């Protein structure tokens, strides 16, 4: 089944304001915090509180119905929602490991998502020496988890761990909350080629990109030319040098673990390189794209995201600069993206989803 990615009448669709002014959204955050941080959560929510959460959910449901191209949202409780693809959605992607097709239903905890983002607003998301020193198991166990190919199960040989981490470990946070007013996060979706947001993307105070995303004249009108941050997974280390070429101050943030390939590469480039420091919480999607949104939320007052859509037939995950890649899970991505878009219905989120 072919689905239009957006109504043809509106090129500039949605606004998602994630978190911001002191209005309904702050109230929501407050409610959710009391809900999560009390030992008897049910007692801390009175009838009106539950009403506010329910109303918010209804808005999200309505939004999914209007913009989800067939996706529907179903309430489980006042925090949980299930997003369902229509029966018969052609999910051709087979998970080779489990020999199953992608599920057509995804459950999300909106309260958790909102809380997570609110936490990111106040934290810096780069691993620092300060953080390792302060954390009781910081140097021994935690540091070891962030180094691949360590050849040791912990950091009892501190010298060894220092050698691995020193090139990417600032003493204190290099960026602070709300350092930038407006940021653009540019995903790698092939759908970017259907729009021309290049200039708009470049008008942001900072632009965050993912992995091997090329930035050059060929794609300029679709993805812009400005480059400030790039989040990369370890597999991209070997291709990273030519990609960073010509942009000495683009900050590279390594997504999960550092390893020898990165360290070798870091020696050869002038760019600042850090290790991402995420808040550990369960959540719906953990791709590089979502991490880059989290990175942005930790540094920017307003975050606009581009290029996170999945191809209309939901059959594969396309990238603007390469052939479609089988193996990514398009339905999960599509559902999470829709949730993200629709959480903005309160109009107080600082995150704007711009296809
Ligand atoms: C699903 O898509 C695949 C490849 O795109 C196609 O071969 C197949 O016939 C489709 N199945 C249905 C039921 O539309
Ligand atoms: C984040 O910081 C703001 C302002 O300093 C504060 O009002 C808010 O409660 C903080 N949120 C969290 C989750 O710590
Ligand atoms: C600790 O690591 C350093 C650096 O790799 C190495 O030179 C040293 O021999 C190691 N010490 C022990 C006791 O293994």
Automatic annotation (TrEMBL):
> Gene Ontology terms, cellular component aspect?
Golgi membrane
Q: Which GO terms describe its molecular function?
A: sialyltransferase activity
Parts of the chain that traverse the membrane: 15-37
Chief localisation class? Golgi
Q: Which UniProt keywords apply?
A: Glycoprotein, Glycosyltransferase, Golgi apparatus, Membrane, Signal-anchor, Transferase, Transmembrane, Transmembrane helix
Protease: is it a keyword of this entry?
no
Q: Do you know which Gene3D superfamilies this protein is assigned to?
A: Glycosyl transferase family 29 (3.90.1480.20)
Recorded hits in Pfam families, A to Z, give: Glyco_transf_29 (PF00777)
- Give the subcellular location: Golgi apparatus membrane
Topological category with respect to the lipid bilayer? Single-pass type II membrane protein
BP GO terms, sorted = pollen germination; pollen tube growth
Record family assignment = Belongs to the glycosyltransferase 29 family.
**PANTHER family linked:** SIALYLTRANSFERASE-LIKE PROTEIN 1 (PTHR47486:SF1)
Mind telling me what this protein is named?
Answer: MALE GAMETOPHYTE DEFECTIVE 2
Name its species: Artemisia annua
């Amino acid at each position: 089944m072919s689905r239009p990615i957006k109504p043809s009448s509106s090129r500039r669709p949605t606004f998602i304001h994630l978190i911001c002014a002191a209005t309904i959204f702050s109230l929501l955050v407050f409610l959710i915090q009391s809900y999560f941080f009390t030992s008897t959560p049910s007692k801390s929510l009175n009838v009106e509180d539950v009403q506010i959460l329910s109303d918010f959910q209804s808005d999200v449901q309505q939004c999914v119905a209007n913009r989800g191209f067939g996706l529907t949202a179903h309430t489980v409780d006042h925090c949980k929602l299930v997003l369902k693809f229509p029966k018969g959605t052609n999910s051709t992607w087979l998970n080779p490991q489990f020999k199953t097709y992608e599920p057509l239903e995804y459950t999300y905890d909106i309260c958790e998502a909102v809380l997570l983002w609110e936490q990111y607003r106040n934290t810096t998301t780069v691993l620092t020496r300060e953080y390792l020193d302060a954390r009781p198991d910081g140097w021994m166990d935690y540091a070891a988890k962030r180094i691949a190919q360590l050849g040791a199960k912990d950091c009892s040989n501190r010298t060894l761990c220092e050698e691995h981490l020193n090139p990417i470990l600032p003493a204190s946070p290099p960026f602070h909350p709300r350092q930038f007013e407006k940021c653009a996060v540019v995903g790698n979706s092939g759908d970017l080629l259907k729009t021309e947001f290049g200039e708009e993307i470049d008008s942001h105070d900072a632009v965050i990109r993912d992995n091997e995303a090329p930035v050059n004249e060929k794609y300029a009108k679709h993805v812009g030319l400005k480059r400030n941050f790039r989040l990369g997974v370890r597999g991209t280390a070997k291709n990273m040098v030519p990609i960073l070429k010509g942009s000495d101050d683009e900050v590279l943030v390594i997504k999960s673990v550092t390893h020898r390939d990165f360290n070798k590469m870091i020696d050869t480039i002038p760019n600042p390189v850090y290790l991402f420091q995420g808040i550990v919480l369960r959540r719906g999607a953990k791709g590089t794209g979502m991490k880059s949104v989290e990175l942005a939320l930790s540094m920017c007052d307003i975050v606009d995201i581009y290029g996170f859509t999945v191809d209309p037939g939901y059959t594969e995950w396309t990238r603007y600069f390469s052939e479609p890649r089988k193996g990514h899970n398009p339905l999960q991505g599509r559902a999470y993206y829709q949730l993200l878009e629709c959480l903005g219905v309160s109009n107080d989120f600082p995150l704007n989803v711009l296809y």
